[in-house]
Design goal:
The complex is a heterodimer of chains A (503) and B (323). Chain A is mostly helical. Chain A is built from 19 helices and two strands. Classes of the chains: A mainly alpha (503), B mainly alpha (323).
Chain lengths: 503, 323
């Protein structure tokens, strides 16, 4: 077999098998370098795989040479490709930018463990995205979840521990729910491969185990995806995690759960369960609208910068689900493209936050007074990335909102309500971002003595470097706002695939 | 008769679970959890799932209990009273239970040969294992080869658990920090000392048997790793933390994990380099059947090393914090 044929497996194996080796790299810097190289290798493979998906192929792989359903198959279609790009891109950017921030938050002796956990989280997310087997998805969900708990618990902030404990309990319940669902389906169909399930579930689709399984799988994945009102674990976990970990997790953790939710629902349930399309819409649409409005409102009242952005993330998950719950080509395209664009915007925003944190005494909005004078470039990057979050024309965020509004208008009278919700929530986003911008630019810090100021000679380079990488991420937001062909064609392709499995 | 026994064990299981939830004494809860695992193992055994029963007994009742106890040494023995009962939580649990009971209404009867699970992939595994691998234990064939990628994932679940414990508890496996009071272990207690020292070689021997007999009977790397780890933890309890770390240093334990996980992954990569898929062991030898046997033995060894090292590292990370 040629190397190209191995790419679907290599994208997961590269970070997975590098992680134990990272533990051996005790000297500072080497562990970081190994993690970065593995992450970039996966990024390159993801790009190669996306290219072949765009050419119309569907790369697949048979693990151990055994064909599914006897062995485990991997399949990469447009939907998985977009998740692969988001995960590997977020990880590579965060690692590239974050060395100084990680050094400032995690003791050198603990860093090899940190980078090993990081690579395992990456491998876990990627393993989920390429897998075509329901149980294999669970295994990699376990790896990624455990690794995320470790990463979040890593910061110097002791409040991370209760936050991560809550996340751990809820995440474990979620994974167990998913496993119960898969177990019930296995009981009724005798198979674990998704494609096989799709064809065998029809004969037993009206029986109680399958109905219960659909419920458990949906709720379990909704918990993982922080769908309102199952989002309670998210704000504290994002707030107290090390800053660079927040960059990575905010860009991709919940998206991977949404990916599994969409794949399972459309590939296995939609065409086989009677009335499932309506149930899916009636379940997700109200929750999505509530998420958008209530979480944006919570962000308006929040006084900590990271928590404010975390609530904003819950609202953005609402947008993605709003698009998906319309069950139309336009709606799904909008949802999936927003999955990509929100990762870009939120990743860039949290990178800017990591840069601000290197200079500020804290991340409450009060601590940010006058920060724009101390960190002009980082703060400017924050503002530029916020434009994408709000949805200014010319940014990536505008593309997804435009498609979302187009999809909503097609729904008739209900659509106008949804358009109002989208417009109102965008104004709310403008308002909560202004709550950050105002103290940063138009108030001066009370204490002229800079308590949290690092030694300029040692940190100056690191801060500029972080700001530079942040600006690259911001530039990506503008690039994909002006040239949205790549995410749009992938998303449209993925929406077609999902709807192709409808009855 | 088996049905009566099964109902009896399941009733005990429910009673134990309720007792775990009800008790405020964490020590009692840990002990009950061990009993729960033993009952569960007995249930698995009744269902003819000997491999799973062995794992549950070794990991659930054995190692987990010791690790929970060493975690308990870092905290209080009694749970804090958390005010009133949360009725919402109780309601959610009750509804979930009712839904799960509803799910059993249309399920195939226990042991029904026409059940879907016995009609689709399982017969293929039973038929093809002798052809492709020529080993008697089909469970090992499924775990190590047909679904070997899942097992690789599970090894990394154990690995990330170890990474997490070492990371959160502060780093390098208990080497740092001078231990002021020499830890006498249980050396001054005659009966544990005599019994423990007598048992230790047999536990290790049994672990090695389970490791290398996994293709023929119940067992394999997971169970063997847990059993050997249990033996070494017993040694640590008898001789004290420091003596145990002298015989197996913390660095060696971590190296064992890294070597085990890398051995498993390395076999997979070797298969790729020899022209097969990842974890396609048939290319390891001119004769595909022999190649698969070699592959299975190698990865089972990797699993055993990784599990044993990870469990020991986790135990010592907790034990080191007690001082």
């Amino acid at each position: 077999m040629s190397v190209l044929a191995h790419l679907p497996a290599l994208v997961v194996i590269a970070p997975l098998l590098t992680s134990p080796l990272v533990l051996l790299l005790k000297p500072r810097g080497l562990a970081w370098l190994a993690a970065l190289v593995a992450s970039l290798a996966s990024f390159a493979i993801a790009i190669a795989l996306t290219t072949s998906v765009l050419e119309g192929t569907t790369p697949g792989y048979e693990m151990g040479g055994w064909p599914a359903p006897y062995g485990i198959g991997l399949t990469i279609d447009a939907l998985s490709a977009i998740v692969l790009l988001v995960v590997t891109g977020a990880s590579s950017f965060a690692l590239l930018a974050g060395r100084a921030s990680i050094d400032s938050q995690i003791a050198p002796a603990r860093q090899p463990y940190f980078y090993a956990a990081w690579l395992l989280a990456v491998a876990g997310f990627l393993g989920i995205a390429v897998s075509a087997d329901a149980f294999n998805i669970f295994v990699f969900m376990e790896i990624s979840s455990l690794a995320c708990y470790v990463l979040i618990a890593g910061g110097p902030d002791r409040r991370a521990l209760p936050a991560v404990f809550k996340y751990l309990i809820i995440g474990t319940v979620a994974a167990t729910f998913y496993l119960i669902g898969v177990g019930l389906i296995y009981m009724m169909t005798g198979t674990l491969a998704l494609a096989d399930m799709e064809s065998r579930i029809e004969a037993v689709a009206d029986q109680s185990p399958i109905l219960v399984a659909a419920g458990f799988i949906t709720i379990g994945l909704a918990l993982k995806a922080a769908v309102f009102p199952l989002h309670v674990w998210l704000p504290n976990a994002y707030t107290h995690a090390p800053h660079i970990v927040t960059v990575f997790l905010a860009a991709c953790a919940t998206k991977v759960a949404i990916y599994v939710l969409l794949r399972f629902d459309f590939f296995v349930f939609q065409q086989n369960l009677i009335g499932h399309e309506l149930q899916f819409s009636f379940f997700l649409l109200p929750l999505a609208v509530l998420a958008v409005l209530i979480a944006s409102g919570a962000a308006l009242a929040e006084s900590n910068l990271k928590r404010l952005l975390a609530y904003s993330s819950i609202a953005q998950i609402g947008y993605i689900l709003l698009g998906a719950s319309l069950v139309s080509v336009e709606g799904l395209t909008a949802g999936i493209v927003h999955l990509f664009n929100h990762a870009l915007a939120k990743g860039a925003l949290f990178l800017a936050v990591a840069g601000l944190a290197l200079g500020a005494s804290g991340l409450d909005l009060e601590d940010l007074r006058g920060i724009a004078r101390k960190r002009p470039w980082t703060m400017a990057a924050f503002v530029a990335a916020s434009l994408s979050l709000i949805g200014m024309p010319g940014t990536a965020g505008f593309i997804s909102k435009w498609y979302l509004i187009t999809a909503a208008i097609e729904q008739g009278p209900l659509g106008m309500v949804l358009v109002t919700v989208i417009v109102v929530s965008s104004l709310m986003a403008l308002a909560y971002i202004w709550r950050v911008v105002e103290p940063a630019y138009f108030q001066s810090s009370e204490t002229s003595s800079s308590a949290g100021e690092p030694a300029a000679s040692t940190r100056g380079g690191a801060i500029s470097w972080l700001a530079a990488v942040t600006w690259i991420a911001v530039a990506a937001n503008f690039y994909f706002g002006l040239q949205p062909a790549l995410p749009l064609s992938l998303a449209a392709n993925a929406a077609g695939l999902l709807l192709g499995h409808m009855p | 008769m088996i049905t009566v026994f099964g109902i009896f064990l399941l009733s005990l299981l429910v009673i134990t679970a309720l007792a775990i939830v009800q008790t405020r004494n964490l020590f009692v809860a840990v002990m009950l959890a061990a009993i729960f695992s033993l009952l569960m193992a007995a249930n698995f055994f009744i269902l003819d799932a000997a491999d799973v029963a062995l794992t549950e007994a070794a990991v659930g009742a054995g190692v987990t209990t010791v690790i929970l106890l060493s975690a308990l040494a870092l905290t209080a023995e009694r749970e804090k009273r958390s005010g009133s009962i949360r009725w919402i939580s109780v309601a959610v649990v009750a509804v979930t239970v009712l839904i799960l009971i509803y799910a059993t209404f249309d399920k195939p009867a226990l042991g029904d040969p026409d059940a879907p699970v016995h009609q689709h992939v399982a017969p293929w595994y039973l038929e093809k294992t002798p052809v492709f691998m020529d080993i008697p234990n089909v469970v090992t064939a499924v775990l190590a080869s047909f679904r070997g990628y899942d097992t690789l994932g599970e090894v990394f679940v154990v690995f990330v658990a170890m990474v997490g414990v070492l990371f959160v508890l502060g780093g390098d496996g208990g080497r740092s920090g001078p231990i002021t009071t020499p830890d006498p272990g249980l050396r001054h207690h005659l009966i544990p000392k005599v019994v423990g020292r007598l048992l230790l070689p047999f536990i290790i021997l049994f672990g090695l048997y389970v490791q290398f007999h996994g293709e023929y009977g119940p067992g394999g790397g997971f169970q063997a790793g847990a059993i050997i780890a249990t033996g070494l933890i017993l040694h640590a309890l008898l001789e004290g933390e420091q003596a145990a770390l002298r015989s197996v240093p913390a660095g060696a334990m971590q190296a064992l994990v890294v070597a085990g996980a890398s051995l498993y992954g390395g076999v997979g990569v070797a298969c790729m380099l020899l022209g097969g898929s990842f974890l396609d062991y048939s290319v390891l030898h001119p004769d595909p059947v022999t190649g698969r046997q070699i592959g299975i033995i190698a990865i089972e060894l990797g699993v055993g090393m990784a599990v044993c090292g990870a469990l020991l590292s986790i135990f010592h990370a907790f034990a080191a914090r007690e001082h």
